[in-house]
Write a sequence for this structure.
């Protein structure tokens, strides 16, 4: 249990509608200072609207916001001085150099870090005179994080920070995010990547259809599934009646047109049963994998759909 | 203030570093001016002279001005013009004493069609109280023919005023005073200097660049940044929309000032024009014209959200506005729907006002209309913008 003094942000009953659509439906949560907090949810769950309210880009229809212990009607200029933002969609202005871009953003704040310090933090010192549009995807994303750090913010909102990056660039960015956490920054993360959420998050909220449907540390959420193992294999066009027989054997089963995932407690009995079923059904068990459940499985269990649906 | 300066510099750098922007926004107006001057002027710096045929009724030769018949009055006006410095503007052709009116009219009509005359005025026989109608024949598609028609229409209005005076509505003393003043005004426009096609085009090209800056460039930049989420990123900082607006508006003003100076310098150097564009009234009117264009731009941004549609709408707005306003060539002869567009188009009045202020030729529309119509458009555009404009691309969940 945390006290209100160690909370960076606390919201209660936050609501936002677009016409008849309730994008955010009276949600409440808090973010502890110095933690990496992750908001998970499929497209249209209301994550972006929630984050944009907290970034001061949108105004909530109802609800209370507490920003570092201060009650505010909405996030405005004063709060924005302490907020760093990396938006989901980062598009760049043509014909502007990296150094010029950082200087311009610096001028938007009352206080800002020196340009060279930002360039060093995001490892772009050698690119300061390059045009922004000529940077690689990973470098552009590092610049975006650099722009979010200009004002030495207390809290950073990172919306899908690694989307579209190659694995190496993703790992580099994870290191940077962890370094920022070590510096004492509070980080509010939204992501589609389960491995990213599991690796980086101290606490996770899962959101669907405008509501918070679960929360906890990644380990707590996975443990709450109550299953220890998952067996994945290729669906290979499996249909009834064999598919129904499989579901009778394993009550907790998830499938999509490509893959079937079977959730089991005890592998020593579940695996022989599965092999027997396959022989009887004349079904080939391709791409068979045994793994621990992850946040994707938690999400499937809670919402019945994948994060990218 | 620093934020505004940096936003201004960002737009300026983009302008100066992008060769397409340099061409289209800075070089193209000069190219356009040169091409149009060569097409319409025939040669650089050519002075305009209107070749006008006056077809008098056969009885007119016995009519004196004191009879206040049209023919007599016009005869006197033409004699006055021919005897003054205004004769540099006009070359009048009248029938010989042994030539019938119909014969002369037929001959001059052929010359008009062949391009050797700009206008034919056919004077009726009428006298007070029923003076009849003057027929003006112009050559379709000829810019000079249209200008000549405008100028002569203005002169005929003065004649009508004289007829009204003769009817007793105004005293003879006032008639003399009024006629004298009118001649002075004509002398100021025509006697001190004649104008060339390039001089006629310069205010039009300046207004065209304002229209492009206010609508195409401003709208293009804001809609691009809006749809790509760049503005959203700006406003996630403490930057206020009004600061961003001030920054981009400063850029548009500086760009427009540079365009005006370039157009003026180019046309002075290449075409040897002598226009005084640096008088305060003209500068204020240019600022007014730019504000009208910018407000039109914001109206487009308010009504059209998608970046792709914005491009189509701005093109659909700017080019008809430019071509159906008299910016490049005379449009006063247009009728029907095109005539209606000309009459409703704020650019028509702005370009008339600009040419009038520079003394190029008297505006065919009144000073009041030259202010009021653009002002109405500006007020309407600002009202729509205040109600509908958003810096965000649209609702998202």
């Amino acid at each position: 249990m945390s006290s209100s003094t160690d909370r960076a942000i606390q919201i209660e009953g936050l609501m936002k509608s677009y016409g008849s659509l309730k994008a955010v439906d009276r949600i409440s949560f808090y973010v502890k200072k110095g933690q990496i907090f992750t908001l998970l949810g499929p497209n249209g769950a209301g994550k972006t609207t929630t984050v944009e309210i907290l970034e001061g880009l949108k105004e909530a229809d109802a609800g209370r916001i507490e920003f570092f212990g201060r009650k505010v009607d909405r996030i405005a200029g004063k709060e924005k001085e302490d907020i760093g933002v990396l938006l989901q969609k980062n598009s760049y202005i043509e014909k502007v150099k990296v150094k010029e871009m950082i200087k311009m953003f610096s001028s938007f704040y009352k206080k800002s870090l020196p340009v060279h310090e930002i360039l060093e933090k995001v490892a772009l010192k050698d690119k300061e005179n390059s045009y922004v549009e000529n940077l690689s995807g990973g470098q552009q994303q590092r610049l975006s994080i650099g722009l979010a750090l200009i004002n030495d913010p207390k809290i950073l909102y990172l919306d899908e920070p690694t989307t579209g990056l190659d694995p190496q660039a993703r790992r580099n960015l994870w290191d940077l995010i962890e370094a920022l956490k070590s510096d004492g920054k509070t980080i509010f993360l939204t992501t589609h990547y389960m491995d990213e959420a599991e690796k980086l998050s101290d606490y996770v909220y899962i959101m669907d259809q405008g509501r918070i449907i679960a929360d906890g540390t990644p380990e707590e959420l996975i443990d709450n599934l109550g299953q220890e193992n998952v067996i994945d294999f290729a669906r290979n066009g499996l249909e009834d009646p064999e598919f129904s027989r499989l579901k009778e054997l394993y009550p907790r089963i998830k499938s999509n047109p490509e893959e079937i995932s079977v959730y089991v407690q005890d592998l020593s009995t579940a695996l022989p049963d599965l092999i027997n079923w396959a022989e009887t059904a004349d079904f080939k068990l391709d791409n068979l994998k045994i793994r621990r459940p992850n946040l994707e499985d938690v999400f499937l269990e809670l919402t019945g759909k994948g994060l990218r649906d | 203030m620093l934020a505004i300066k940096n936003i201004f510099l960002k737009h300026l750098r983009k302008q100066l570093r992008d060769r397409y922007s340099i061409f289209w926004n800075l070089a193209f107006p000069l190219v356009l001016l040169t091409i149009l001057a060569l097409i319409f002027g025939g040669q650089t710096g050519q002075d305009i002279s209107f070749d006008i045929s006056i077809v008098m009724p056969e009885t007119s030769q016995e009519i004196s001005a004191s009879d206040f018949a049209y023919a007599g009055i016009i005869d006197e006006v033409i004699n006055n013009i021919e005897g003054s410095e205004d004769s540099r503007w006009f070359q009048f052709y009248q029938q010989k004493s042994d030539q019938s009116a119909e014969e002369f009219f037929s001959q001059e009509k052929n010359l008009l069609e062949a391009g050797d005359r700009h206008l034919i005025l056919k004077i009726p026989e009428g006298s007070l109280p029923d003076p009849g109608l003057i027929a003006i024949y112009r050559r379709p598609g000829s810019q000079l023919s249209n200008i000549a028609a405008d100028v002569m229409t203005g002169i005929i209005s003065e004649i009508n005023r004289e007829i009204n005076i003769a009817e007793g509505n105004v005293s003879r003393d006032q008639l003399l005073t009024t006629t004298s003043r009118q001649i002075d005004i004509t002398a100021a426009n025509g006697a001190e200097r004649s104008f060339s096609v390039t001089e006629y085009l310069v205010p039009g090209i300046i207004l065209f660049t304002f229209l492009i800056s206010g609508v195409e460039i401003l709208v293009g930049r804001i809609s691009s940044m809006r749809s790509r989420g760049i503005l959203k990123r700006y406003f996630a900082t403490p930057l206020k929309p009004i600061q961003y607006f001030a920054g981009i508006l400063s850029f548009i003003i500086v760009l427009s000032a540079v365009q005006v100076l370039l157009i003026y310098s180019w046309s002075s150097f290449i075409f040897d024009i002598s226009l005084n564009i640096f008088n305060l009234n003209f500068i204020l009117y240019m600022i007014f014209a730019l504000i009208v264009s910018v407000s039109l731009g914001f109206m487009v941004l308010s009504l059209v959200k998608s970046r792709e549609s914005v491009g189509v709408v701005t093109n659909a707005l700017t080019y008809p506005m430019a071509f159906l306003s008299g910016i490049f060539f005379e449009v006063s002869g247009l009728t029907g729907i095109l005539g209606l567009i000309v009459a409703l188009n704020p650019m028509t009045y702005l370009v008339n006002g600009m040419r009038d202020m520079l003394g190029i030729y008297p505006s065919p529309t009144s000073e009041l209309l030259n202010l009021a119509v653009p002002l109405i458009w500006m007020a309407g555009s600002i009202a729509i913008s205040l109600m509908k404009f958003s810096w965000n691309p649209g609702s998202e969940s």
Strands of chain B lie at 50-55, 90-94, 119-122, 135-138. The CA atoms of residues 170 and 331 of chain B lie 35 Å apart.
